[in-house]
Amino acid sequence: MTIDVERTGSHEFVARNDRGAEVKIGRVGQEGAFSPVELLLAAAAGCVAVTGEELVLRRAGEIPMRATAADVRPDGAHQLDGVDVTFDVDLSGLDADAQAEVRAVVTRAVEALCTVTRTLKQSSEVRLGIG
């Protein structure tokens, strides 16, 4: 899998996958664009949501779901100390045992299958080539 990021203007880039999806990338605060860290956070939250979705739907039915990711770092730092991800699902229609089961099943699935959060936990090596 590869993602192309092409410069489209001053501090403006577009990331594309091989299926034709695009996302705008720019500096923090740039209108209409995600910063690179925001994309990392979106990837972490998206991975949790995609991993947990079917498990929740099977047990709780069609309910609203939302995953949120926040960076953990001192102000002005250029490295994250962590990423906090919250998967919000309304389990109030289930009894306490069923709620606990959903939480446990989703947690196990995310810990076993979510490539993005698993990679972040390992602090994966990044190899940079310039050519």
From TrEMBL:
Lineage top rank: taxon: Bacteria
Entry-linked InterPro entries: KH_dom-like_a/b, OsmC/Ohr_fam, OsmC/Ohrsf
One Pfam family, short name: OsmC
This protein's name: Uncharacterized OsmC-related protein
UniProt organism field: Actinokineospora alba
Upper lineage: Bacteria, Bacillati, Actinomycetota, Actinomycetes, Pseudonocardiales
